[in-house]
Structures are given as C-alpha cells and as structure tokens.
Recover the amino acids of this structure.
C-alpha cells in the first residue's frame, strides 16, 4: 500500500472544497472548521480540539513596521549627518537592521496576545499502536490570508531592505565620523541622496502590506490539509506497528504561527525529542515540491535526519524533488517546533501566487499532490521500520 493517484485525486477534491477565504476570526474560518470536523468524523478517527487565542498584532503591526522603523532611524541620521546626532542614529539604524531577523523570528508564535483577540482551535487526530516506540507528527495549517504583496515579493522586500539598510547605515556612519573629524569623505563613504531614497522606499514599502481575507488559499494551505486527510484514511486502515501518528491541523498560522506554538507549549514535556519527529506541510501542490532545508538569518538547518530520509524516498520512487532556503520575511509552523528542540522537516512548493486572490484550485497540480503524499506515507514506513527492534 502507498499513496496513489486516487489518493491525490481525493486530496484535490477536498482542496477544492476548502479553497475559500478563511482568515482567523471570519465566517470563512468557522466554515473551514466545520468542514474539517465533518471530514474527521466521517473517517471515524479519534480526534480532539484544543482552544487557543490569537492576535493580529504580530502580522499586522510588527511585521509591517520593523524595517520601516529602521528606515526612519536612517532618515533622521541623514537629516543630521553633519552632526553627532547623525552618527548616533546611523549606529542605531545599523544595530536595528542587524537585529531585524531576530526581532521578527521571535515575534512568530511567541508574542503575547494583546489588541483584538480571536478564539480559534487546533484539531488533533491520532492513530497509535498499544506500545509505540516513536512518534511522527504531521502538521498543516488550515487558515488563509491575503496581503498587498505576494509572499515572494514580501521576502524580496525584507531581504533587500535589510541589505540596503545595513549598507546605508555603514556608509552614513562613516560619513558622519569623517565630517566630525574635519575630513570630507568621497566615494563609498559619501552616500548620495539617491542611495537614501532607494533604501527608504525599499524598507518603508512594507508598511502598506496589510492583511486581508481575499485569498482562497488553495495552495496555501488547503492542499496540505487535504494530504493529511488522505494520510489519515490510509493509516486508519493499516496503522504502523511501532509508530504513533498524530495529525495536527493548526490554527492562526497566518497571524504568527499561533497554533503550532500553542501545541508545542502544551505538549513538549510529554514528547521525547529523541523519538518524536515532525513533518510540516505548507504550500504544497504547485509545479515543484521542495524541502525546506534551511531558513532564517543567521541560517538554521531543519532536521538533517528527516531530510536525509525524505531525499532517500524521493530517489527510491523517482520523485522530482528540490530543496530551498527560506530567508527573512516568511516562516512556517516548523519554527516554534524546532525552537523547542524537536526534529522537524518542512515540505513546500513554488508559490508565486501565495497570499493573493489568485491562489485558486486552478494552480494545483495532481502530480505534486501525489509526490507530497508519497513522501509523507513512506516516511512513516521508514520510521516504523527503524523502530521495529
């Protein structure tokens, strides 16, 4: 038994049902929860829910003002570049841009709830032998969102913003120091107003990237939910002998990874990091499936052990599969899981239309769904075999 074309078609059909706007706190989210609950009940798999609170502050405030605020620091430095004030603000700007990745990373899933709070919930289904020796946890978020900028453009703006901010602050600091000691700098150390305008526009443009509810979220992330549903059906009829399986449908990922952070905070003391593994699906089903092997600035790697197994599966089944590095400006539910010390792998795909109204069922590829399903199914089989003795 394996994940077949028929399973991929079933996943496609469920994706079509779920592909409607479902931002946290909207009627669409409630509709998605009802659809998911009805599906789990029809499969007759044990499941439960866990309530949590989420706030739009991280995604709608923190991630819109961090780099623009750095640009404001450098604007003050530029206006007072002939004085000590200019030097101070250029150094503040430099430290701010160098710390931006850490500021944003810590905001994902860990910010306290304040402002408008939304009540939502995770769904957790479980399939377990009587005496499991290891635990594989599949994850997929079921909410969606739209933003002014597609996800790829947002990442480009974040990366470019940090680069231009760091370079300009260094140049401006050097200019201010030179002027204060009575030396007129030239070349690199004499930044023009054009370089300031480029830096400022690149960073300040992020302040307009507000969150809305216009994206049907087919690829992000109805496809992943559908894959987990099909995996539940397969394993419910033929469960592993040594491996407990959990399937977590997380809430409020799009507001700041709230569902994943809530789950791991509740359960991390019950889980053994040596025998617990996570596979997160986020944005699969487009033209090419990818394994997120590293992320963030400074760079962090996802599970070397799980990634190795996944690439072995891809080779054994002749699956087209690539890898990707995800820098600042985007994150998935794997972030709080890895931060808690667990082995986690993350499957994504090329997603040029993510967070736009064009993220529709028309762009979902059956072949990519089949690949994603095979990876998830075969990973459980490999882990089950590993813990056989």
């Amino acid at each position: 038994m394996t994940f077949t074309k028929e399973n991929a078609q079933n996943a496609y059909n469920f994706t079509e049902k779920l592909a409607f706007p479902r931002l946290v706190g909207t009627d669409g989210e409630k509709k998605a929860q009802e659809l998911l609950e009805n599906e789990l009940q029809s499969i007759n798999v044990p499941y439960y829910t866990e309530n949590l609170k989420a706030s739009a502050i991280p995604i709608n405030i923190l991630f819109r003002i961090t780099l623009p605020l750095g640009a404001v620091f450098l604007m003050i430095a530029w206006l007072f570049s002939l004085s000590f004030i200019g030097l101070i603000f250029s150094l503040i700007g430099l430290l701010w841009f160098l710390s931006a990745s850490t500021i944003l990373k810590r905001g994902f899933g860990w910010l306290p709830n304040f402002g408008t709070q939304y009540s939502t919930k995770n769904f957790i289904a479980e399939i377990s032998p009587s005496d499991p020796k290891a635990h594989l946890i599949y994850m997929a978020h079921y909410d969606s969102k739209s933003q002014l900028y597609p996800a790829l453009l947002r990442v480009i703006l974040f990366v470019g913003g940090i680069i231009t901010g760091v370079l300009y602050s260094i140049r401006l600091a050097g200019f201010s120091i030179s002027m204060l000691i009575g030396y007129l700098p030239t070349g690199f150390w004499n930044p023009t107003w054009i370089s300031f305008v480029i830096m400022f526009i690149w960073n300040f443009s992020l302040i307009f990237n507000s969150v809305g509810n216009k994206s049907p979220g087919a690829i992000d992330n109805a496809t992943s939910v559908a894959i987990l549903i099909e995996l539940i059906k397969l394993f419910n009829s033929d469960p592993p002998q040594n491996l407990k399986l959990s399937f977590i449908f997380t809430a409020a990922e799009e507001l700041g990874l709230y569902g994943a952070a809530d789950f791991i905070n509740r359960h991390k003391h019950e889980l053994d990091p040596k025998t617990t593994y996570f596979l997160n699906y986020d944005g699969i089903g487009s033209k090419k499936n990818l394994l997120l092997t590293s992320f963030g600035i400074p760079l962090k790697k996802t599970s070397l052990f799980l990634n190795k197994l996944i690439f072995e599966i891809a080779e054994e089944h002749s699956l087209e599969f690539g890898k990707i590095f995800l820098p600042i400006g985007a994150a998935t539910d794997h972030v709080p899981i890895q931060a808690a010390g667990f082995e986690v792998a993350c499957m994504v795909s090329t997603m040029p239309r993510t967070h736009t109204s064009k993220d529709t069922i028309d762009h979902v590829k059956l072949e990519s769904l089949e690949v994603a399903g095979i990876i998830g199914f075969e990973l459980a089989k490999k882990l089950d075999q590993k813990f056989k003795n």
